[in-house]
Amino acid sequence: MCQTLLMDILILFHRLHKSVQQAFNNKARLNLPPSYKVSWMETLDDEKLISDINIPGTHDTMALHGGPAAECQSWSLHNQLLAGIRYLDLRVWGKKLIIVHGVIPQFTTFAKVFNATSNFLSQYKTETVLIRVKEESEGKIPENLIIKLKNDPGCWVSDQIPRIGDVRGKIVFVQKNSFKLGISLLETDQRGDYKVKNISEKEDKITEHLKQALGALKTDRAVLSYTSGTGLPLWRIFKTPNRLAKKINPWLYGYLKDVSKQNLKRCFGIIAMDFPGFDLIQKIIGFNN
Question: What does the mean pLDDT of the chain come to?
Fold first, then answer.
């Protein structure tokens, strides 16, 4: 009797562990299935608007350093792109556009991220990557960079929503504050939604935001929903982005799995996450089929 109960507990633990791993990842190493194809956008209709595509993204894409309270990702940029991420969230500081998370530098720059993304797209020419740049030092993006990006044939800087056929192999910029290049954005999150008091309230907010995204008109702007979060100031040590994502991501995977069973056309737009696992990314991509 005891042995049978122990076996049942072990099986249950294995299933729970597996459900976490398929949705959540906090390891630097990326293990791709042998049959996996990086170029998931290859099958998309060229006439489809970029705003009508389900796009997995990362919140604070380059937040790989600074300890538990600051780190939001574990995969390098290259690994994120290989795993299917196609929306990057960059926070920059100063004239050199150093990538930061809050006040914590992330040991890279916008120029390095831009070049790495361009190199990825030169290899995977059917893909496109959306990049949003937020200036954190309340300064201005250098004018010479703006001019350079406007003249770069590998960049989409128009505010008109492009069709996927127009931007294969290109970076699509997304407007934010002082960075006015690229397409407009509707954010479903409200100010302060990233502050998590308890998990169930956060899950309810995410559900509300995803439903809003489904109902939004996407002909003149892209739609973005964040699932990321951190604890309130006094409790951040217990509710770091890592710890929250470990609970939220499996829930999100289950929520999307239930939605996919309805066999209806669904477009959530961009979903930006902390520590997404490979299977969660693929679940979002799967809504495009």
Answer: 91
Asked if 154 and 169 touch (Cβ cutoff 8 Å), the reply is: yes
- Taking 70 as the threshold, does the pLDDT of residue 43 lie above it? yes
Tens of pLDDT along 75-115? Answer: 999 999 999 999 999 999 999 999 999 999 999 999 999 99
Residue pair 105/96 in contact by the 8 Å Cβ criterion? no
Whether 78 maps to a domain, the answer reads yes
20 found inside a domain: no
Q: Is 46 exposed, middle or buried (0-12, 13-18, 19+ CB in 10 A)?
A: exposed
Cα distance between residue 258 and residue 194, in whole Å? 24
CATH number of the domain at 196, please: 3.20.20.190
Helix (H, G, I), strand (E, B) or coil at 152: coil
pTM check: above 0.85: yes
The confidence band for 140, taking pLDDT boundaries of 50, 70 and 90, is confident
3 state DSSP class of 215: helix
Q: What is the mean pLDDT of residues 131-146?
A: 91
Q: How many domains does the chain have?
A: 1
Tell the burial category of 27 from Cβ atoms under 10 Å away from its Cβ (0-12, 13-18, 19+): exposed
The answer to the question of residue 160 being in a domain is yes
Residue 5 falls within a domain, yes or no? no
CA-nearest of 71, 131, 127 to 97 is 131
Q: Is residue 286 within 8 Å of residue 55, measured between CB atoms?
A: no
- Which range of residues forms the domain containing residue 225? 36-286
